[in-house]
Design a protein that fits this description.
Blueprint (H helix, E strand, L loop, with lengths): L7 H19 L13 E2 L1 H9 L9 E4 L3 H6 L6 E2 L6 H11 L8 E4 L11 H10 L5 E4 L5 H6 L11
Parallel strand pairs: 1-5, 2-3, 2-4, 4-5
């Protein structure tokens, strides 16, 4: 008698809503890039650091934490693609990549799909590294996008896979 009042489609709808709720709870908080909460460096500063041949200059690991398609189109030579910083998979890749590194390792995060104030990827990645205890993390400040603020200014860029 009760099962006739509870059609199959209603059960499927409840299951769908529940799975969406679980995904929302597990997804990292997405905030736009905010330089008041993150240590930053400019393209000029990073270029200078990467070009410096002095043995006493610590070279950073550079991670692109955004779209794979944009990474393939153009990226900082030597940078590694880890996945989007605002996804569970991207944050898992980041955590795995840094798991054996010393907590003072110099790490630079960047993306550059859109203006700085709209970037959804660098804040979650930065926060994740901070929670893991990393103390020498900086975010490349890209005001407009990677094309305008890096490639078009003539800074070194590579194309294709890492």
């Amino acid at each position: 008698m009760f099962k006739n009042k509870w059609p199959r489609f209603a059960f499927l709808e409840v299951a769908r809503v529940a799975s969406v709720a679980v995904l929302v709870l597990l997804a990292p908080e997405v905030r736009a890039a905010d330089s008041t909460n993150m240590a930053t460096l400019t393209p000029e500063e990073l270029t200078r650091i990467l070009a410096d041949k002095s043995p006493n200059v610590q070279k950073p690991l550079v991670f692109q934490v955004g779209s794979h398609m944009l990474y393939v189109q153009a990226h900082i030579p030597g940078s590694e693609y880890l996945g989007q910083g605002n996804t569970a998979e991207g944050l898992q890749n980041l955590g795995h990549r840094v798991s054996a590194l010393p907590k003072r390792k110099f790490i630079v995060l960047y993306y550059g799909c859109c203006p700085w104030s709209h970037c959804p990827n660098v804040n979650p990645a930065y926060d994740a590294l901070e929670k893991l205890g990393f103390t020498n993390v900086k975010v490349l400040y890209i005001a407009n996008n990677f094309g305008a603020d890096w490639v078009e200014k003539g800074y070194p860029a590579a194309k294709g896979e890492q």
